């Protein structure tokens, strides 16, 4: 019931304030699992559970608005593709595995995680399995897989759901009575569900801050994927803002955190949506179901939901992307595998934050190791790409950022590149960025080392601002104004261009 509310009001608000005709907002599989894990501590306290749900929704909305206010949407550019693929793959696997009990007609209760579900499923015997439920699940699964392939513009999942409800209500066949419906497992009534009646405690807010940000973060990734598919990245800030306001409105009306739904957004695209009226009407159509559709919802068989969700999970798997990630370098494979495995064994928000943090750490490590390249300088002053051991004049080109950690190991690395017969070394700073005090101090250490080894040194390619900074902090370096040129040999070869 609260999921329907989430699909209705936040969906309408986001549609009115947003820009894209292909973004629909509401409950999603990935954020739903985070929400479930986040609210579990209050599951046995109904009056506090609704308060926790509303609090989480507020925090998820404020997180988006905070990102918009700081213009920090570029934060998502630092999430590697391998992390996104690993998370999506893990989410798809979890969604599929968590439906297996209902797929075989033996729904489990109080399942903690995937491992717990698999262990308990392995203990089921043939007498516990309902073959009628398996038949319906397979029918629903096949309808999703085959419908996407042969009838992509037809609402096959909806048609399958309607057919299963019709069989429950009117079919005279005995096997239909073996299907477990939502009426047997869930309390569903006509009308708006109850709202929170308590204010949150500070300890509750503290416990939900990180999950709230995680919901916002992952929901934003789903938004980015949707906008990227439509070449509408320019509307990222507007859509983030609209979803932030939508969640704030939803927190007062009984919804849990809403995010971009990848599957329903794809349906809008396939249906030819051209204005924001499309997602608005999609959300508006849910209102009569909330108010008057309880009988129909109660008649939905759990087996058909299991089959549809497994089919959707399979569609979330991207074999080509997974294969490309696994074929890439070791860092990319590590990011993918760490995120995928952590998604299976940790809470969703912990897994995605772990993968994103690891990706950011690798980026920072790479950025903190500037590239050093040594050239020999001939008698005419030309740079030679081949290193001549006996050359008395060498040039070391430094490329990359030179701030903080990037500068700490610079003296040792430069010293290691001194050739035995070098008498003059030129440092080229033309391709460096972000030179700060730490970099000037590192260069000062290297100059002192060169002096101890009776090697003359000159530093070229600097900017006037860098010289001014050195003067300000009292560091004297052997600056030079020589123009740096490199002779490039021409190689005659045939080349194919892809």
In short:
The protein has 22 helices and seven strands. With about 500 residues, it is α/β, with parallel strands linked by helices.
Strand content: 5-15%
Count of individual domains: 2
Q: Give Rg in angstroms.
A: 30 Å
Structural class per helix/strand content?
alpha/beta
**What is the helix tally?**
22
The dominant shape is elongated
- The neighbouring-strand order within the major sheet is 4-3-5-6-7
Task: Give the integer mean of the pLDDT values.
Answer: 85
Spell out the helices and strands N to C.
HEHHHHHHHHHEHHHHHHHHEEEHHEHEH
Number of strands: 7
Q: Mind describing the biggest β-sheet? A: 5 strands, mixed
Q: Report the span from N to C terminus.
A: 53 Å
The poorly predicted ranges are 487-498
Q: Percentage of helical residues? A: 55-70%
Explain this structure.
The protein folds into two domains: 2-363, no CATH class; 371-472, Transcription Regulator spoIIAA, CATH 3.30.750.24. Helices cover 57% and strands 7% of the residues. It is built from 22 helices and seven strands. The strands form two sheets. Strands 4-3-5-6-7 form a five-stranded mixed beta sheet, with helices on one face. A two-stranded antiparallel sheet has the order 1-2. Strand 3 and strand 4 (383-384) form a beta hairpin. Helix 4 (81-97) runs antiparallel to helix 18 (348-367). The longest helix has 28 residues, at 202-229.
């Amino acid at each position: 019931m609260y999921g329907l509310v989430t699909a209705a009001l936040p969906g309408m608000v986001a549609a009115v304030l947003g820009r894209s005709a292909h973004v629909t907002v509401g409950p999603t599989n990935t954020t739903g699992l985070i929400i479930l894990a986040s609210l579990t501590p209050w599951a046995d306290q109904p009056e506090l559970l609704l308060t926790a749900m509303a609090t989480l929704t507020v925090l998820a909305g404020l997180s988006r608005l905070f990102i918009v206010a700081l213009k920090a949407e570029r934060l998502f550019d630092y999430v590697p593709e391998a992390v996104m693929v690993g998370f999506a793959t893990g989410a798809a696997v979890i969604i599929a595995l968590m439906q297996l009990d209902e797929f075989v007609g033996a729904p489990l209760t109080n399942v903690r995680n995937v491992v717990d579900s698999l262990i308990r499923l392995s203990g089921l015997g043939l007498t516990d399995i309902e073959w009628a439920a398996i038949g319906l699940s397979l029918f629903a699964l096949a309808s999703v897989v085959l419908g996407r392939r042969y009838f992509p513009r037809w609402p096959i999942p909806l048609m399958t759901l309607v057919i299963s409800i019709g069989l429950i209500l009117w079919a005279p066949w005995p096997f239909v009575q073996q299907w477990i419906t939502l009426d047997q497992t869930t309390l569903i009534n006509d009308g708006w569900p109850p709202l929170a009646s308590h204010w949150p405690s500070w300890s509750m807010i503290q416990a939900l801050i990180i999950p709230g940000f995680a919901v916002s973060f992952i929901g934003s990734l789903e938004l980015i994927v949707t906008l990227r598919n439509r070449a509408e990245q320019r509307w990222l800030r507007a859509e983030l803002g609209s979803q932030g306001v939508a969640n704030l409105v939803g927190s007062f009306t009984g919804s849990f955190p809403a995010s971009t739904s990848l599957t329903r957004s794809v349906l809008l695209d396939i249906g030819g949506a051209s204005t924001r009226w499309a997602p608005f009407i999609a959300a508006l159509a849910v209102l009569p179901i909330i108010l008057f559709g309880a009988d129909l919802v109660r008649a939905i068989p759990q087996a058909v939901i299991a089959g549809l969700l497994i089919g959707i999970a399979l569609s979330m798997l991207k074999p080509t992307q997974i294969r490309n990630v696994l074929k890439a370098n070791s860092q990319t494979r590590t990011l993918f595998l760490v995120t995928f495995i952590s998604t299976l064994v940790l809470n969703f928000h912990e897994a995605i934050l772990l993968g994103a943090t690891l990706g950011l750490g690798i980026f920072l490590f790479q950025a903190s190791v500037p590239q050093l390249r040594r050239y020999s300088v001939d008698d005419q002053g030309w740079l030679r790409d081949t290193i001549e051991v006996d050359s008395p004049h060498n040039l070391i080109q430094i490329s990359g950022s030179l701030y903080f950690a990037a500068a700490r190991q610079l003296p040792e690395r430069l010293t290691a590149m001194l050739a035995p017969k070098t008498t003059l070394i030129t440092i080229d700073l033309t391709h460096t960025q972000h030179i700060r005090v730490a970099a000037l101090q590192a260069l000062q250490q290297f100059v002192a080392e060169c002096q101890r080894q009776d090697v003359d040194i000159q530093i070229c390619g600097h900017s006037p601002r860098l010289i001014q900074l050195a003067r300000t902090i009292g560091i004297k370096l052997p600056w030079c104004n020589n123009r740096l040129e490199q002779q490039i040999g021409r190689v005659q070869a045939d080349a194919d261009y892809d």
